Each structure stands twice: as C-alpha cells, then as structure tokens.
TrEMBL record:
NCBIfam families: met_pdase_I (TIGR00500), PRK12318.1 (NF008970). It comes from the Bacteria. GO terms for biological process: proteolysis. The gene is map_1. PANTHER family: METHIONINE AMINOPEPTIDASE, METHIONINE AMINOPEPTIDASE 1D, MITOCHONDRIAL. This is Methionine aminopeptidase. A divalent metal cation 1 binds at residues 130, 141, 271. The keyword Protease applies.
Amino acid sequence: MLKKKRRWHCLPGQPITDLDRQVMYWENKGKEVPTRELIKTPEQIEGIRKSGVVNTGVLDEVAKNIHVGMNTLEIDQLCYDYCTAHGAVPACLNYEGFPKSVCTSINEVVCHGIPKEEDVLQEGDIINVDFTTILDGYYADASRMFIIGKTSPEKEQLVRVAKECLEVGAEAAKPYGFVGDIGHAIEKHANKYHYGVVRDLCGHGVGLDFHEEPDVVHFGHRGTGMLLVPGMVFTIEPMINMGTWKVFIDADDPYGWEVITGDDKPSAQWEHTFVMTEHGVEILTH
C-alpha cells in the first residue's frame, strides 16, 4: 500500500518546533493541515498589513463619497484613483476577465457585481463594495456594506446580522482550531434569523496571491476543514441572504461574473483579511 504523502514538512537541519509538533499531531490524526508555504513570515505579514492600509483607505474613500444618485462606475473610478495614487494596483481589474477595479453588488446581487453607468444608487438600496489591493506584490481583500439613505427595517437587520456573522466567525477562529469552526459559528448565528448562508462561494487564503488555500466556508461543522495555524492569512466573508442560500449567475451578464440570490431577495456581506496568531485572529484590513 502506498503511504499517503505528507503535506507538512519540518525544515531540514532545523529543530522541531512546538508548531511542527501541533501540526504533525493533527496530520497523524487524519486532519487536513496546511503546507508550510501557507505560513507567512513576519516580513510577508508586514507587507500584507501595508497593503491592507491602502485597501482600508479605498473603502474609507467610498464611505465619504457614496450617495443617492451616484452610479457604480463612479465608485469604480474613485477606487481606482485612490489605489493607484497610493502606489498600489487593483487586483480585480482584468482578473480572469473581470472588467473593472471593484465589485459593486446591489440588493439581490450577492457578489461580483460589475460597475456600470446605468446602475444608479437609489434611496433604500444596500450595496456591497468589495476591493482587493496589490501593494509591492502583497494582497489584501475586504468589503463593506453601505445603506443608501434610509432603507427598510428588514434590510437594516440583514446588513447588521451579516456584520455580526463576520464577527462571530472571526471569534470562532482559534489557533489549532479548524476552518469548520468558523462556518459553524456563522451558520448558527444566521439561522437565528432564518437567513440563508451562501454555500457556493467562500473565503480564502490570501497574501502572496489573490486566492490561496484554504477555502473558508461559512457553514458546516466544528472540527472539519483545514487546521488553522499561526501565520496563516485568510479572508472571512460570509454572504448572508434574506431568503434562500441558493444563488445563480446572471444570464444577462456578458462576463459571467454577477451572482444573484435564487429568490431575488436581498443579500449582504462583510469581509476582512485576517492573520492567525498564537492568540486568535488579527484584522489586517481595518
């Protein structure tokens, strides 16, 4: 019988660390563990942190300027201008055919909404603005919800609970815990409101590339998924629907990107990039 190839390798010639022992313990128990390449060095984490500062600045700029009557192409231009003025590059621009610098997802658009001149923000809309920055080769990824003017109590609650889902997911992420712990906490909180947690999209590792391991699902069971190890960098970005968790790709989108709720009810999402430490996660995209 062929022996299963190990994912975790100790550094040759170096003493075995407590981190090595923890990871090998769980790997020997049959759990999914990261490769050593997913553990970022302090220098890499600092680079991602600096990228996060620019990314936060982009979303702060949106917060200052977003208003009724603004179209999403104007949001795209604002994000592009701020990012490039600070020496960075918008990661979304031309990524696998995505034509703009930012994702702008209004009401029933779950994610990957493409900025358009004809998409004009109306009183009562809710919109997710999702931006990823590349600075000196390091990636940081975050999104925020914005309420345009005054909206319904139902939409206000959805936006609030979606943010709470991000917070409870982050709280559940512990060193040498598992990705499934995050999803379990998020799903449990969303279920209190009978909301759907999108299953077809997830958070992800990030930092040296746009999308890395692990897949950070936002539903599921404790103790499942990849082991969370200090030095890993990843996003948590639950997409919370007012109705069904099911989604589809908009057939009218020529680029094949925009994701819509299966029942056309609103959706909300918040996202941060986190680094796992010995004490829990730290946000890199304040």
